[in-house]
Amino acid sequence: MRTDDEAEWHRRRRHAVTVHAEAQERRKAVENSQARALVADFVRQARERALPTEPLVARSYTGRGRYRTGLRGWYLKADRSMAVGEDGAFYLLAVPASLRARFTGVTLRADDPPLVVGRGGRDGESISLATLLERVLNKI
């Protein structure tokens, strides 16, 4: 049986966890909004500069398979793992391997763009989304 002190401690702990999770969700929403604004501005500038688009190709997680997506846009990284579509959406271009998709292609869903690409990754390499977008704009 719990004592009153233990019960109070557990109640406070649950409250602290809830408050922390809510704050984290608010931060994430703000970051997503800022990143979407960066992407929208990038698309506007790319169109103004007549920056050419190209067909976006997804790769399997293993890197062996390549799949048509039916989308056009601008790759953000040299490894072609992420892109911004002409539709203004941000896409991660890694998909599960599929024999059927080799012939039919894949349908990608838009992802929330991160403000910092690679944050928390094992290799320790991260770069701001703004920097990636600026690099693509300045390729010409």
Please explain how this structure is put together.
With 140 residues, the protein is α+β, with helices and mostly antiparallel strands. It has one domain. The protein is built from 3 helices and 7 strands, in the order H-E-E-E-E-E-H-E-E-H. The strands form 2 sheets. The chain has a 5-stranded mixed β-sheet. Strands 6-7 form a two-stranded antiparallel ribbon. Helix 1 packs parallel to helix 3. It is elongated. The N and C termini lie far apart (71 Å). The model has no long low-confidence stretch (mean pLDDT 91).
- So how many helices? 3
Low-confidence stretches: none
Structural class: alpha+beta
Rg (C-alpha, Å): 20 Å
Walk across the major sheet and give the strand order. Answer: 4-3-2-1-5
**SSE order, as H and E?**
HEEEEEHEEH
Strand content: 15-25%
- The overall pLDDT, averaged over residues, is 91
* N/C terminus separation: 71 Å
Sum up the overall morphology in one term. elongated
